[in-house]
Design goal:
10 helices, 25% strand, globular, alpha/beta
């Protein structure tokens, strides 16, 4: 859905990524518009180093492109949306600097705009990483919808940046104003976080998992993944297996441990997730470390029996090149409930699988994934179920 966002500097046509004409979700919300109005109305100087974090679809970065901002994002989709929206509005991509959450942040920040993320952990980690670059004159403004800003959100700004207050709400959006405090003694950044897996989850029982901030269920094993680990497909020699939407990589690591001949591809659109997956794999499969976590799509090279790729699902994986895809798809896009991501994952899996290849999907019973799989594959088999989850298998004919 293309939409026009009005700002003090003009109107911008924006879309999510990948663009889908059937998608009715906007690429911006009231909190994006609110913070831009505030910056203009308060005459905030944007001539120095401007950093934007958590920009979901590039709306803020596009509107501020004339001030050459630095965008920091954990989302490959947000990064690609930003590029597309810059082009859509005739803005030179070189006018902005695009960084990921795994990159070293700027060493000086004069204006910091924080689009509050859904993950409090990711906000905590990003504030810790950016705090050394703040100075007494830095303008720090957070923005989000009222339902996204909690007391715990404000406490993080207080503990890591300095004195914090909020604005009045406008169109169900609110701003956060935080003043950098010289000499503030900050707590230690707790990320990445590591824990041992419980018993009863197969070959990875008792193994250590690494979670960088922002990874789903970062402090414990989520029950859906636990169920999948208890019912993984039997290993079949030198096969290529994809851990699609890999998170911390525990499923792909289990495959690699159970079948040392398997070539495992870990894929996620989150830079933090792929870094977590690589750390989890390295710690448990004991392969020598590479030069670091994966770069954007297209730059990941095989390392032993594992590849680590940040991208939009299986978009850049060759057709008919994999044997098994294991998937626990998300059913939220930020605050919106949607099956669009799952549908793209299933469609991408069907294209990437060889004839006879299998897609294994874990999901909540009520999501009705079996209907989608039947539409795409012509078949869907129930492998296992409990009161909450179903594990489904679809075979490419």
């Amino acid at each position: 859905m293309n939409d026009r966002m009005a700002t003090p500097w003009g109107e911008y046509t924006l879309a999510r990524f990948p663009e889908d004409p059937r998608d009715r979700l906007r690429a911006w919300d009231a909190s994006d518009a609110y913070v831009l109005r505030h910056l203009a109305a308060s005459d905030t100087s944007l001539s120095g180093s401007v950093v934007v974090t958590g920009d979901r679809w590039g709306a803020l970065t596009t509107a501020l492109a004339a001030h050459r901002p630095v965008q920091i994002t954990d989302s490959h989709l947000a990064r690609e949306a930003t590029r597309a929206n810059l082009r859509r509005n005739g803005v030179d991509e070189d006018s902005v600097r695009l960084l990921t959450t795994r990159d070293t942040p700027p060493d000086r920040v004069d204006v910091l705009i924080v689009r509050v993320p859904r993950s409090l952990a990711l906000l905590e980690d990003q504030l810790h990483r950016l705090a050394p670059a703040l100075h007494e004159g830095t303008v720090v403004v957070g923005t989000g919808m009222v339902k996204e800003i909690h007391t715990s959100t404000l406490r993080l700004f207080e503990r890591i940046v300095g004195p914090t207050r909020t604005s009045l709400a406008e169109q169900k959006a609110r701003l956060i104003f935080s003043t950098p405090a010289p000499g503030l003694v900050r707590p230690t950044n707790p990320w990445p976080y590591r824990y041992e897996l419980p018993d009863g989850v197969g070959v990875v029982s008792g193994r250590t998992v690494t979670n960088h901030a922002g990874v789903f269920c970062a402090d414990r094993l989520d029950i859906g993944t636990r169920f999948l680990l208890q019912h993984l497909p039997e290993s079949r020699g030198a096969e290529r297996v994809v851990d699609l939407g890999c998170g911390n990589g525990v499923v792909g690591t289990a495959v690699a441990l159970a079948n040392p001949r398997a070539s495992v591809l870990f894929v996620d659109e989150s830079y933090q997730a792929v870094a977590s997956a690589e750390a989890t794999y390295r710690a448990n499969v004991e392969q020598p470390a590479s030069d670091g976590p994966a770069d954007p799509v297209g730059s990941a090279d095989p390392v032993g029996s594992a590849e680590f790729l940040v991208g939009d699902g299986l978009t850049d994986v060759p057709s008919a090149s994999v044997d098994v895809v294991l998937n626990n798809p998300p059913f939220h896009s930020h605050q919106a409930t949607t099956d669009a991501t799952a549908w793209r994952m299933f469609s991408g899996a069907r294209r990437a699988l060889r004839p006879g290849g299998e897609l294994w999907v874990i999901g909540n019973r009520h999501l009705g994934y079996h209907l989608k799989l039947r539409r795409l594959f012509g078949n869907s088999e129930l492998v296992a179920s409990d009161a909450k989850f179903v594990l489904l298998r679809a075979v490419k004919k």
